[in-house]
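Format notes (please read before filing issues)

Several people have asked whether sequences and structure tokens are stored in separate files. They are not. Every record keeps both together, in the order shown below: the sequence lines, then the token lines. Line labels are part of the format and must not be stripped during preprocessing.
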Amino acid sequence: MPTHYRTCNICEALCGIAIEYEGENITSIKGDEKDPLSRGHICPKAVALKDFYLDEDRLRSPLKKTADGFIEISWEEAFEITVTKIKEIQAKYGDNSVGSFLGNPNAHNVGNLLFMRPFLKALKTKQRFSASSVDQMPHHVAAIHMLGHSMLNPVPDLDRTNYMVIMGGNPIVSNGSMMSSPDVGKRIRSIQERGGKVIVIDPRRTETARKATEHLFIKPESDAVFLLAMIHVLVEENKIRLNHLEHSVIGLEEIKTAVKQFTPEKAASITGIEASKIRSLVLEMVAADQAVLYSRMGLSTQTFGGLCIWLSNVFNILNGNYDRVGGMMFPSPAIDPITFSPKKGRPKRASMPLSRVRKLPKYIGETPSASLAEEIETEGEGQIKALVCIAGNPVLSVPNGKRVEKAFEQLEFIVCSDIYLTETSRHADIIFPATSGLEISQYDVTFLNLAVRNIAKYSPPMFPKKGNVKHDWEILAELTARLKGEKNPGQTPEMMIDMALQMGSYAKDGITLEKLKANPHGIDLGPLKPSLLKRIQTNDDKIQLASQVYLEDLKRLETHINTDHSNNDFPFQMIGRRVFRQHNTWTHNAHILSKGKNECTLLLHPNDANKLNIHSGAYVLVKSRVGQIEIEVEVTDEIMEGVVSIPQGFGAGKNSKMKIAVAQNSVSINDLTDDLRVDTLTGNAALNGVRVRIEK
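Then the structure lines:
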């Protein structure tokens, strides 16, 4: 029986998988024992690749919306209508009247990544939105201000650290986020087995916290104060050590001044964590030598997300564990985004580009997704009149999804590229049906730049295209050519991958596409090595510890902590959570991932449940400023009092035509999240900390 080896491209983990098959019949999907990164690990999501490929709900031909519903049309007609409408709308209203939204799967599809930039350039609009600004934008912003390039994002050296603090992350469920790391559970056990500690700080006792050495509850949106207090202890105890970065850091005195008032005693009353625990935690990390602080989505998706990620970097630098074995390190991928888009020597912008309506910052060319609805609703130059959505579902993934959906009714034209008819694509005038994970080739450009070990791996398509579909990159290439009035040059992802590898830092080692094809398990390029000083992109080659944008934002934090935020109308703070068997819209229609008990529940502390006279299994109304949902309650002491948790990614409605997802009768947390709550420093959506109330 033949076996196909590839990298699972559903989430960030980059698990190597071995797929046994006969014809189109997949008999098993297992972990690839020879994969140098995942080492045989596999999570349940990988088996959904079979469901995606065979799903009868998948779109198989281009669709056009009519008064009587969608009808199948030819590819030529779909392309012609799309390009004609885009040009007509831009001729009438201007280039920025067409917006684009790029969803999460684009980051996992090499064809999309390689062909998206030329397409967006041909589209000529500055109204670009993506999943980044409802997720990790604060990480990119910190990389820009501190290191000069948005893609210089450090990852924990998980396999060699002796002390790991995890804030706002649940890597056992995510397999690492902004840290591609299959089998985090085993890697955490290894830290403990070699005498180290893993500490989780989170408003919920997560799956990772249950396996950790210790868990500390922290009040939502108080993380920045906690981090300031940690740095305060380093300063107070004279424990700052920069190691090899000593002559490459500027702004240390400004940091010392900034943290002076944030004592552990002050932080204790705000965070709920005792001052003595803050001090002992910091001193233990100092003593551990190889220690790392890892902060993730719980910190980046709050109103002080930018400060949180900046302060996390500052702490790791001052504790001597930045660009150092066992600390925060920088992968050296075979296709390096720093090499292909260097920033060093380029003149800096005189001012930050701002969104049209709310004047939010636009980093890496993106308008914050929390402003999508208002950019459609608000009249004036640059008002969005048409939308191009590639593998995205903003109705479920953007704050105040109901407002977004209503705003879509104003648009003159919507075109989507997707594998399903979703809550978003059902509004489209034209839908391009795209191939799924087993039909595409894969070389992971994005997440090998975030992996905890350097590897290179190429996966050819397993199956030919099924139905009258095209690869996303083929769709993008054709639209690009037609928008520019040129002939499609006929490039392929493989041609571009091979060229990039031959220009990469491992070319001298013979890493070519042909060599990767000959090594289907991937090639191990070794553990992470100190590399920052060779790759840093600031013009003076210095790490900017104290960029003015952060020092200014501390004033906003001070105002916040000195304000009474008690709210009798909305007494609870809501946080999101990730569930083990789900990832995005598509996985909710995989039968094998949707079996078992209801996972779309509201977590509520027993004391809060008693006050409200609510028990597990009951259904309640949860209301916020923007909307309400009805959801099942799960009473548990894994959540803090005064805090509730709802999982992300659910909420497919009957109009989505995804039968399995619809049958779950789930709800979307983004019917409650508030599009007016953003981190004003980075423009990222503040999904966590939303005020809600609960009614029987």
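For reference, the curators noted about this record: Residues 63-135+356-492 form a domain with the Rossmann fold fold (CATH 3.40.50.740). The CA atoms of residues 97 and 384 lie 4 Å apart.
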